[in-house]
Amino acid sequence: MWKKRKPAIQIKSRDELAVMREAGLVVGRTLRRLTEEVRPGITTADLDAIAEESIRSAGATPSFKGYQGFPATICTSVNEEIVHGIPSADKVLRDGDIISIDCGAIVDGWHGDSAVTVPVGEITPDLQRLLEVCEESMWRGIAAGLVDARLSDIGHAVETYVRDQGDYGIVEEYVGHGIGTQMHMDPPVPNYGEAGHGPRLSSGMCFAVEPMVNLGTAATVLLDDDWTVVTGDGARSAHFEHTFAVTEDGPWVLTALDGGASHGFLGRDERIKDGAQP
Q: For residues 268 and 182, what is the distance between their CA atoms, to the nearest angstrom?
């Protein structure tokens, strides 16, 4: 989509990025808590209740609940479900499952958005590798988000890494996005494509990078609930996402609790507090 028009990309000030960091920390802490709660026997509705309590107790508002009619605080996508699974008291997690949890929060009108895929109990080696490949591809995409890079460099980095790891399906119908005063903003951020195309990145731009990688083909099917997306061949799928800001010092991962420092990015929290420019 981004090839057909020139999207207006919102530029955030230092103070606006600081508020987005607050929203990102709410999301990161909520996902950390949910990851700790995932176990055989818990329902996805249980996880949704935990998420809503976590977000609201932090003084934030869930981004997803009510968004275009979505009925829950988080998306919970189990096994062959790729994205947008609706939490349910009837969906009980079992040993060997994988669950993707997508979470968003709003602080003072600014959004954070992140997702993680979590093993339930013991999972098979091929599933563990799927999770590793998907997560690492996200970090490769974030690493490409540099000042003066092109937007398509992000998706190219994601795709190149996944293709090098084996015969995985990279979902194309659902992509990352700009983020700021709305959860979904221009531009779309695909997880594939040639490098060197699209808008040039500038400091203060923010994006959500979210590869969805399948064990089988890239084909998808939308279920009758008009939300849940599953793999076309029933193979399992992983989904990871972080919101990051483009800065002069490199990517600042707003939804990572350490700002991305453990993956080689410069944590910027103290510099922002001290008044440094993005």
A: 23
Measure the CA–CA gap between 48 and 227, rounded to whole angstroms: 16
Sign of CA dihedral 21, 27, 32, 35: negative
Q: Do residues 132 and 168 lie in contact, with contact meaning Cβ atoms separated by under 8 Å?
A: no
Contact of 79 with 100, CB cutoff 8 Å: no
Neighbouring-strand partners of residue 230: 81, 221
* C-alpha closest to that of 214 among 185, 160, 179, 172: 172
Give per-residue pLDDT as tens, 33-77.
Answer: 999 999 999 999 999 999 999 999 999 999 999 999 999 999 999
Query: What is the C-alpha separation between 245 and 179, in angstroms, rounded?
Result: 10
Q: Does residue 276 have a pLDDT over 80?
A: no
Q: Which CATH number is 2-273 given? A: 3.90.230.10
Note the Cα 223 to chain centre separation in Å.
21
- Domain chopping of the chain, boundaries: 2-273
Cβ(278)–Cβ(243) under 8 Å?
A: no
pTM above 0.85, yes or no: yes
